[in-house]
Amino acid sequence: MSSRRGMSRGFGSRGSRRPDLTRNLTSTVRSRAETPPPPPPPFGPTIDSISSRAVLVEEDAPTIQDAEYIASYNWLQGKSPIILVPGSPPAWAPPVEDTKLKPDSGDVFRDVNAARHALYPLEPAFRALKAMEPQFHLQSVDVVGCGSTIGNLLRFAGSQSKPFRFDVDVVGDTVLFVRRENPPTELITGLQGYGHTFPEAYTAWDSDVRNSCSHQRLVLYDFGGLKFLVRSETDGYVKDPGLDLLKMAQATEPQNLEDALGSVALGQSVVDAGQKLEVRLQGRKIPQSLIFDLKTRASYRQFDMDEILPRLWVNQTSKFLIAYHKYGVFENPKVEDVGRQVLDWESRNSDLLARLHAIVKRIVDVVRDSKDQQCEVSWDGEGLLRITKQIGEGRKALPSDVI
Question: Where is there biased composition of kind Low complexity (predicted)?
Fold first, then answer.
């Protein structure tokens, strides 16, 4: 299957939307990314281990409740780390005629957040949240994660063998799951299919967010009594003629930049190579109901919706586009509403989701009680999930001024 940002069956951020993004970076970053990655760092002492089958689950099957889009941002192309807040995803804009597209080529980052802001990949999300919701109380949230980290735990709960490793940090009572790549600028090479050229031809960035390369969103919801704040990358949105997006943007835009950003000193956090994260208030809020994800596939290969429904559930996305092609020609692809299918998947997988909830609850309880609150969660794809202590100084998820 061809996937749009390289992570064909995964969750979370799937690399850059534009295949030439890496060619806009410095040659130093590029050469580092092409160098064989260093061996992963050793694991620290084990704090706890979890069996997906032996974990204690509650009798009532949990479901997602009170889902709410709360913040967003775009990564801007270029050599410096710049985000636009709230930004907006590319709009669905199919051409008048379906023409033959060239297949994908070039390389993309596996995780655009880590590649563009390696030291604190979660920082842009919190800068955007502070700008859009200055009064948001983070301590009301139990878990902050992304589609990748939550998706990894969901696969572990279902015994789908795919190893993973991510960092855990605790800020107050809030537990942060931080995706990690080795190295942060890891590339996906040898792209195949049309997962990049298709959205280039069938979607377009709005004028106020032109030169963006990725749209990231934060969704808040309750899952079995645990408050989740989940970041994910979004493929696009469908314009709704019944909504005046300009008026909506004006109604929700902060009137004063300093007031909107509050005490957060934007642009003062040093990132890799001396670069600083710059935040620009630009773009417009797009309702979650208009957001869609997409996949491309050859017409002779039928797409199984169970490949995407777990991701749509984690990210609370109700629209999806499966674009079939014949040798690069896509025939009248359309975005479909799959909200009912997402709910049906949730209902059919109540046992799986009960295990996921129990696993997350166990991790949260263990790391909150641990004296070493910088930990790691890992799974080798076969045995027990392990919570281990980070070796060395520990990797903070956020800079001190954000904390």
Answer: 1-11
Which residues are CB-neighbours of 316 under 8 A, at least 6 positions away? 64, 67, 219, 221, 230, 288
- Secondary structure of the chain in HEC code, one letter for each residue: CECCCCCCCCCCCCCCCCCCHHHHCCHHHHHHHHCCCCCCCCCCCEEEEECCCCCCCCCCCCCEEEEEEEEEEEEECCCCCEEEEEECCCEECCCCCCCCCCCCCCCEECCHHHHHCCCCCCHHHHHHHHHHCCCCCHHHCCEEEEHHHHHHHHHHHCCCCCCEEEEEEEECCEEEEEECCCCCCCEECCCCCCCCHHHHHHEECCHHHCCEEEEEEEEEEEECCEEEEEEEECCEECCCCCCCHHHHHHHHCCCCHHHHHCCCCCCCCECHHHCECEEEEEECCCCHHHEEEEEEEECCCCCCHHHCHHHHHHHCCCEEEEEEEECCEECCCCCEECHHHHHHHHHHCHHHHHHHHHHHHHHHHHHHHCCCCEEEEEECCCCCEEEEECCCCCCCCCCCCCC
Let me know: does 186 contact 14? Beta carbons within 8 Å: no
The pTM of the full predicted model, rounded to 2 decimals, is: 0.82
Answer for the pair 33, 138: CB distance below 8 angstroms, yes or no.
no
- Residues in the chain where the model's pLDDT stays below 50: 1-10, 12-33, 183, 185, 187-188, 249-274
Please state the domain extents for the chain. Answer: 21-389
Report residue 310 as tokens.
């777990």
pLDDT at 385: 97
Q: Cα separation of 289 and 287, whole Å?
A: 5
Predicted confidence at residue 9, as pLDDT, reads: 34
Q: Name the CA radius of gyration of the chain, rounded.
A: 20
